[in-house]
Amino acid sequence: MKFLYKIHSGFDGFRPAVLPERIKDRRLRLGWRHYIDVVEKGWECWVYFHGPHSFENGVYVKGVIDDIEHVNRVVIIRVREHRTDQPITSKPTSVRVADIVRPRYRQVFIWPDEWTTVTQCEPNACTKRLCEECDTWKQLPFIEEGQLANPSRLRWSNYKDLVSTHWIVPSRCYEPHVKDEIRELTRRFTSFKCGEMAYAYPFALSLFKQLQSRKQLDFDYVVPIPLSPDKIEIGEEHRTLVLAQELGRLLDVRVQEMLMLSSSVSKRRMQAAGFTVPQFEYEYGKSLELDIPDNVNRILLVDDVITRGSTVAQALDAIAKKQPDVEVVVATVGRMIVKEAVLDDQGFKKQ
Fold it and tell me: Model-level pTM?
């Protein structure tokens, strides 16, 4: 469910320019005189500003409902995106929102289910962050709870939760009858891994939605899995960093590269040379360095895809050794379709 909340700046001078003063610890308090009994935590809310002050009418805040004070009739929004200089929605969406919130003497409106804004789904549209208005993104198949098993290499690791968003078809998939939507999603994900960074935003948005559904939104830092030094040397895109930056923007959480590799360790190359998974993990863990602040309580550790979890396991172990009290949530866009990962194949198998 999504709400639209209208603010008239002439009422008490609340306009987009003063948002930094009103947002405290990423929270925005909104008086909610009517229909507060309908509101639930986790629902989305967009804040629309209009009025006599000098700014363009439109949506300047997007967030999710974090708390409800029924006695005070106040709803607290956890802000995930805001601007002070111009609306954060596209022109067509701003026009539609303005039409919905047009009635006077009302503050709260329900986002109409019948809205359908067809956006051509291609990298340029993704770069402009129009995905929430895109039918293609809306129809992406998500992994649902109960479909996944925990990765085998994480069985001895300490972590709070593992959140994965989309099934990805590996080059050798045990299931030949995979839905066309999953194969198309895999094509886009492969394009992202090959350097098409425009897809970082839609995949980060998918991850945000999964984290939101799991009520995992509060973190001190978003931390990407590091890029190998040999890839840095040849100028390869650091896709987990870009993904983390987009996700940090949606969560309004700082992004910091706390994990570094002192040498290049490639699982694929080592396995091709006959090394075992434990041997790779040993070499990877030995080259992994950690620079973590002292005041950290919760971290979101981000990787693009996870199969059995060898890389993530070493990152978790490094964090646990340095600061054992830090709570870590692991987030990955993709989960490879391998037998040991699948509890329920209804999410990707053709019927």
Answer: 0.74
Q: How far is CA 301 from CA 91, 221, 225, 226, 260, in A?
A: 35, 9, 7, 11, 13
Torsion of CA 202, 205, 210, 213, to 10 degrees: -140
Q: Which two tokens stand for residue 307?
A: 């199969």
pLDDT tens by residue, the chain, 351 residues? 678 899 988 777 899 999 999 999 889 999 887 767 677 788 889 999 998 888 999 999 999 898 888 878 899 999 988 999 999 988 888 888 888 888 887 788 877 654 544 445 555 666 666 666 666 777 788 998 889 999 989 999 999 999 999 999 987 888 899 998 898 888 888 878 877 788 899 999 999 999 999 989 999 999 999 998 988 887 788 999 999 999 998 998 999 999 999 998 888 778 778 889 899 889 999 999 999 998 899 999 999 999 999 999 999 999 999 999 999 999 999 999 999 999 999 888 987
Burial class (CB in 10 A: 0-12, 13-18, 19+), 195: exposed
Q: Cβ(47)–Cβ(23) under 8 Å? A: no
DSSP state of 178: B
**CA angle in degrees (0–180, nearest 5) for 288-235-302:** 45
Output the CA torsion sign for 150, 151, 156, 157.
Answer: negative
